[in-house]
Design brief:
Elements (H helix, E strand, L loop, with lengths): L9 H12 L12 E8 L1 E2 L4 E3 L2 E2 L19 E7 L4 E8 L4 E9 L17 H11 L3 E6 L9 E4 L11 E3 L5 E3 L7 E6 L6 E7 L4 E8 L2 H12 L5 H9 L15 E10 L2 E2 L11 H8 L3 E5 L2 E2 L13 E8 L3 E11 L6 E9 L15 E8 L4 E9 L9 E3 L3 E2 L5 E3 H10 L5 E8 L2 E5 L1 H4 L1 E11 L2 E10 L5 E9 L1 H12 L5 H4 L7
Parallel strand pairs: 8-26
Antiparallel strand pairs: 1-5, 2-14, 3-4, 5-6, 6-7, 7-9, 8-12, 10-11, 12-13, 13-14, 15-21, 16-31, 17-18, 17-19, 19-20, 21-22, 22-23, 23-27, 24-29, 25-27, 27-28, 29-30, 30-31
């Protein structure tokens, strides 16, 4: 993707030069709003190692996973421009005076967001939304560039850190050996979901993951970014305490009127459990890798159950999954369990007008209106609610993905080019909540202990009838927990079919370049 016409302000160019001063490149007068933190430790290879070149995670591992020269880069320099809302990072190898530099990272791409109107002093509902957004594993993948005036990229302080050779080297004897100096195709910066201010850096070559490290930002810096990006004036200590030790969310009423104007109920339906769905089916490539690598099993009465499809499951059967724990690694010995619960018996569809925004243009997908969907359980007085869903993108040929419960939660990881396009010209931020009804009032529930993380929506047709498939995916996107076929008809069916007939995928969903893996 070529750089556009938006020029980076001069002070930001100076900021980059100041940052590179630590790498011996240039100097300038510092911006008073720039905070600089040096010598932040980067801990590498924290996952459980399964063999020589294989770690317990869902990524494909490169032959260079434990050999890359990046492993010598074990400390970080951080510069934050409060005025520009921009981070610059330097991954450094002090013994060699070399570094990899991450330029121009918009903090909006990484920190938890509140993409709706709220007061500067957050109330309990706002803080709960910040908590749910914090739970998201939010990362961006950067490409190697010499410059870019619109979004983040990475390059190096010295030309000879990497080479242009392939991922493998053939030795004189003909064996395949790692190439420690292979240049990464992409490097990622990830805001970890487990602790506020815990972040990650990773790199991939054309084969797979070649480097992974963890670091902790100073608490004041992290919450300064969060507060400034969202216009928050609550104290850092208050926000940290709330996120680090969250209260019981079930005392907080759900206030959807901040996100949309509800116009009318347009349809109701009885959801049907998708008994034909394979238990080892999956909704994404991330899930596919975890399913195929045995990140879960099914238990009934503490015994493993060999179930082919959801028709073989009974209420109370357990999805028994690898735990995900600090600093952000999987543990096959500690387990996370979620009960199979198909007791959802009614669906309501509402016509709504979105009020949310990332600050860009979001009106390009409203031709057929927007939906709010309520999946209701009379047994447990619970609802799963998803809204601000553009019917124009609810089509037969694609899944509509809600990557996390809360409001405006972004994909757990994506190309920075997609993140840029999504926030600048994508849809209105959608929302999803697990709720409990008491005395005719809906209250929040914390979906994470329950194990729900994502929602996938996709219409399909069978025997001349149209249905909406609704899939609930587990925490860490390990496995699909629930799937329902919801019959739709009348005006809603006709709108979905019209949208499907004229569908063109948004560029933020399909953008790719020669660096994509």
């Amino acid at each position: 993707m070529n750089s556009g016409t938006i020029s980076r302000p001069l002070f930001l160019q100076q900021l980059v030069f100041l940052f590179l001063l630590g790498l011996g490149i240039s100097s300038c007068t510092p911006d008073k709003q720039v905070k600089i933190y040096s010598n932040i430790p980067v801990s590498i290879d924290q996952e459980m190692a399964l063999d020589t070149n294989k770690a317990l995670n869902s990524s494909t591992q490169s032959l260079n996973r434990y050999h890359s020269i990046l492993r010598e880069h074990n400390q970080l320099k951080v510069e934050y421009s409060k005025k520009a809302k921009v981070l610059n990072l330097g991954l450094e190898a002090p013994s060699k005076n070399t570094g990899v530099v991450f330029h121009n990272i918009n903090t909006q791409f990484l920190v938890p967001l509140l993409p709706y109107k709220h007061n500067n002093i957050l109330d309990d509902f706002d803080k709960a939304n910040l908590l749910l957004a914090e739970y998201a594993r939010n990362g961006i993948s950067l490409s190697y560039q010499t410059d870019n005036k619109e979004f983040a990229f990475f390059n190096t302080s010295e030309e000879n850190i990497f080479n242009e050779d392939g991922e493998f080297i053939y030795s004189a004897s003909g064996t395949i050996e790692p190439n420690p100096k292979v240049k990464p195709k992409r490097m990622s910066v990830i805001n970890n979901c487990l602790n506020p201010s815990l972040w990650e850096i990773s790199a991939t070559d054309a084969v797979g993951e070649m480097f992974h490290g963890w670091f902790t930002l100073p608490k004041d810096l992290y919450f300064d970014m969060v507060k400034h990006q969202n216009g928050i004036e609550n104290s850092t200590e208050e926000l940290y305490k709330y996120i680090d030790s969250p209260p019981n969310l079930e005392t907080i009423p759900l206030d959807l009127d901040r996100f949309r104007k509800q116009k009318k109920l347009i349809a109701t339906a009885i959801p049907q459990v998708a008994g034909e769905k394979l238990v080892d089916g999956y909704s994404s490539q991330d899930s596919r890798r975890k399913v195929q690598r045995g990140f879960y099993c099914i238990l009934r009465d503490s015994q493993k159950l060999e179930a082919a499809s959801f028709a073989d499951l009974l209420p109370g059967d357990l999805f028994d999954m690898h735990s995900f724990k600090p600093p952000g690694i999987y543990d096959k010995n500690e387990r996370m369990q979620t009960a199979y619960n198909p007791a959802w018996d009614q669906v309501e569809f509402y016509d709504v007008q979105p009020l949310t925004s990332y600050g860009g243009k979001h009106d390009g997908y409203g031709k057929y209106g927007y939906l709010e969907i309520h999946l209701k359980s009379s047994t447990n007085n619970e609802r799963i609610i998803a809204g601000n869903i553009p019917i124009q993108l609810l089509v037969l040929s694609e899944d509509y993905k809600i990557p996390g419960f809360g409001v405006g939660v972004l994909a757990s990881s994506e190309l920075v080019e997609r993140r840029y396009l999504r926030l600048k010209e994508g849809t209105y931020p959608h929302y999803a909540y697990l709720t409990k009804e008491r005395d005719d009032q809906l209250y929040l529930m914390n979906n994470h202990p329950v194990g729900y993380e994502q929602i996938y929506l996709r219409p399909f047709q069978k025997e001349g009838k149209t249905y909406l498939r609704m899939t609930i995916v587990s925490y860490e996107r390990i496995v699909d927990l629930l799937e329902f076929n919801i019959p739709i008809h009348g005006d809603l069916e006709q709108l979905v079919l019209k949208a499907s007939a004229s569908y063109k995928p948004p560029i933020y969903e399909v953008y790719q370049d020669t660096n994509i893996l």
